[in-house]
Design goal:
Blueprint: H1 6-11, E1 15-20, E2 25-28, E3 55-59, H2 72-89
Antiparallel strand pairs: 1-2, 1-3
Length: about 90
């Protein structure tokens, strides 16, 4: 999975929160439902209430560990997400 794509973010447990300043609304984007090959770079989300473009915030996975990608549970979850994308879309 290429960096800079929704698939990369999903596999690595990042999150995106979209904000609409007009409606004062906040929504957590479900990355598992986004096209995994689509780039998130400079992506502007549109509010489904008022139709205006909002802002978004990209957040790394929360962890209190200094080396999360050495944790077997984290690695297993990443592998599960990769397999899920492979099954849904036929590619990694």
């Amino acid at each position: 999975m290429r960096t800079g794509t929704f698939g990369y973010l999903y596999i690595h447990a990042y999150s995106i929160t979209a904000y609409c300043t007009q409606c004062e609304r906040r929504v957590d984007v479900d990355l598992s439902k986004m096209n995994p090959n689509e780039s998130y770079v400079n992506r502007r989300f549109v509010c489904n209430r008022c139709g205006r473009r909002g802002d978004s915030k990209l957040s790394p996975p929360y962890t209190n560990m200094s080396r999360p990608f050495e944790d077997p549970e984290v690695i297993a979850e990443m592998e599960r997400r990769k397999a899920e994308l492979m099954e849904k879309y036929g590619y990694e």
